[in-house]
Specification:
Number of helices: 2
Helix content: over 70%
Radius of gyration: 13 Å
Order of helices and strands: HH
Shape: elongated
Largest sheet: none
Strand content: under 5%
Structural class: mainly alpha
Number of domains: 1
Distance between the termini: 6 Å
Length: 56
């Protein structure tokens, strides 16, 4: 898939922010919100993988 560079950068920044937010919720002991943030982190990781894979 030919994705523009700004979209790949945006998804990468979102992954970092979801990870930081998940760490913050883990420190506060809010496991449900941390789990939701980690789920969104994984969803963005899959999106980034799909945007950057070659041969399609």
């Amino acid at each position: 898939m030919n994705a523009p560079a700004w979209r790949i950068g945006l998804v990468a920044v979102l992954m970092v922010l979801w990870g930081l937010l998940a760490l913050r919720f883990v420190q506060r002991g809010e496991s449900v919100m941390a789990g939701m943030c980690l789920l969104l982190l994984v969803a963005n990781a899959v999106t980034l993988w799909r945007l950057t894979r070659h041969g399609r």
